[in-house]
Structures
1.
Amino acid sequence: MGKNYVDIEKDSGETLRYRKHVNGRGLVAHGAKVHPTAVVETGAYVEPGAQIAAGVHIHHGAWVESDAVIGPEADIAAHAHIGPHAVIGARAKIGVRTHIGDHAVVAPGALLGDDESVQDGERIATDKRGLHLAA
C-alpha cells in the first residue's frame, strides 16, 4: 500500500507535507481544513490555513492558496487559482484558468467565466447569467 502523503520542497527550502484527500486524491497541506464531503481532484492543491466547506468541488490543477476560504457547494474549475486570503461565497462558480487575487471576495452564487481575473482586494458579484453587478 502506497503512502497517503507527499512532501514538497518550496523554493525557500522549507518542506511542506500534503496528504491525499479522501475524495479525489488531490493534495491538502498540513494545517488546511477540508470538509469530508468536499472533492479535491488529483492535481489540485490546497495550501496551509485554507478552509474548504461542505460540498465544494475543486477540479484538476486548481490551486487554493494559504488562508483562502471556500464556501459551501462552491465549484472551482480546472487550473483556477484562488489567491491567499481570498473568500469565495457559497455556491459560487469559478471558471477554468480564472485567477482570484489576494484578499479578493467573490459573492455567494457568483458565476465567473473562464480566463477571468479578479484583482487583489476586489469584491465581485454577478447575476445568474454571470453579468457583473455594481459592488
2.
Amino acid sequence: MKKSILSLASAMLFVFATNAQKVEFEEYDLSNGMHVILHKDTSAPVVVTSVMYHVGAKDEQPGRTGMAHFFEHLLFEGTENIDKGEWFKIVSSNGGRNNANTTDDRTYYYEIFPSNKLELGLWMESERLLHPIIKQGGVDTQNEVVKEEKRLRVDNQPYSRFLEYVKENIFKKHPYKGTTIGKMADLDAATLEEFLAFNKKFYVPNNATLVVAGDIDVPAAKKMIQDYFGPIPRGEEVEKDFPQEDPITEAMTAKGYDPNIQIPAIMAAYRTPSMKTRDSRVLDMISSYLSTGRSSVLYKKLVDEKKMALQAGAINASQEDYGTYILYGLPQGETKLEDIIAEIDEEIVKMQTDLISEKDFQKLKNQFENNFVNSNSSVEGIASSLATFNVLYGDTNLINTEIDIFRSITREEIRDVAKKYLNPNQRLTLEYLPEAK
C-alpha cells in the first residue's frame, strides 16, 4: 500500500510539472545585437527588468583579477542622468527592489517593480549601458566596498576558501583557477583607463541579454525596448578563446589553510565537463543521491550511523566551460581525514559497480521534478532562468525542456558516469586545515 501511495504521488507530481510549468516566452534580437526575451505573466502586478552580460571572472586579464565583480558594484555609482547615490533611492521610492551578482561566467542585474513602472526599469538599465559615469572617485569608493565585502565573506568567514584552494589546483591553464572576487592588489593597481576599456569591451548590447518578465503588454513593452535600447551602438564582437585543460591522470594532493576554523575538512575534487553536457546533469543527480537530506547516502552513513563526521556531502559546481565535483567531510572526534575519504570512496565504488535501487532512483526523480516546479514558481526565478539558459547554454527553451533530460537519465548512466569521472587517479585530495604548521 505504501508503495502504491508513493507511486501515485510521483505520478501526480509528474503530471503537474508537465502540464502546469511550461513557460511561454518570445525572443528576438535588436539591430545592435542585444537579445531580448519577453515573458508575460499576469498572476501578479509586478515586472522584472533584467540584463545578463556574458562577462565574468574568467574574462579578466592576468594581474587584473576581480574586475568583473568590481563592475557589478561600479555600475550602480550613477549615470549621466542618475546622480551618484540615487540609484537605490529611485528604485525603492517607486516600490521596487534591485540587485546584481557575478560569477566566473556572467554578470546579472535586475529590478523588480510594480508593473506600471516597467518603463522606469527599462530606462535605468539602458542608462547603465549607455551613460555610465566611470571616474576615479567612483572607482575609489567601490574599491573600499569590495574590500569590505571580501573581509566579510571570505577573509573572516569560516570554510569560505575551500573552493579557491580547489580551483587553483584543479585548473592549470583555464582562468577558472582564479576567484570571482579577485585579488585586492590587482584592483588597487588597475588604472582608470583599464576600467574604461573593460566597460567598452564587455558592456555592449551585443554581449547582453535583456529579459522582461511579468505583467506586461507585449506590444507596448517592445516599443519601449526599442526606444531605450535600440539606439545604443553595437560594440566590437567579444571573442572567447580559453585554453583547454589536459586530462587529470594522476592523483594530486594539496593543503589549504583557514585561520577562521577549528575543525579541519577533507575534499576530493574532480574536474568534470561543462554544465551544458548530459554528463553534468547526471553528476547533479549523483550529488543529490549522495548528499541531499538526512536520508542521503553520505549523511546517513558518516554522520548518522558511524558518527565519523559532523558533515559530509557532494557538490557539483558546474560552469560554462568545465565543472568541479567535490566530495567532502568534516571529522567528528578523533576521526582521521583519510578515514573519511576511505568511507566516501567505498560508496563511490558501490555506485560504479552496482545500480542504485529503484526506490532511491524514484526518490531522485521526485527531487528533480520538485526542483523544476520550484525554479519556475516566481517571475523573478523565471527571468533569471531565461537569461541563464540563453547566455550560458545557448538555448532559452531549456527552461521547459531541461527537466526532460533529467527524466531520461537512467540508473545505468548514473553508474557509468560515476565510473567515468570519480576515480582516485583523476582527483585532487585537499586537506583544509585550521592553521599552517
3.
Amino acid sequence: METETGADRGEVVLRLVPHLTDINANGHIFGGWVLSQMDIAGGIVAARIAQGAVATVAIESMTFITPILLGDVVSVYATEERRGRTSVAIRIDVVATRGIGMEEVVLTSGVYTFVALDAQHRPRPLPVV
C-alpha cells in the first residue's frame, strides 16, 4: 500500500492511545476497539455534514492491514467519500505513530455510511451544498 500524507487522508478527527484493557488474546489491540473508534470519528464528520443527528447504517468495506500494538499513538482520519439524498459515506483511515523512531504505520481503512435523522429518528434529506 502506498503511503499517504495526512492531507490526503482528510482531517484527524481522533487521536488516542489504546489501554492494556484493549488487548485481545493475541496481544494486539482488539479489532472491535478500532471499529468503535472509526465509527465515532466517522459519526463526528457525518453529523457535521448532515448538520444534525446521524446513524451508522453500513460498513461498506473494511481492511485490517496490520495489528495495533500497545503503545501505538492511533490517529483516526476521516473524509467525505460520497453523498446521497439522505446518506453520506465517510472514508476512515487509521494510522499509528509507533516506537522511538515515530514510524507511521497504516493500520486499517474502511468506508462507513451514515444516514441523517429527523426528530422521529427517520431518514431525512441532507442539507443542500
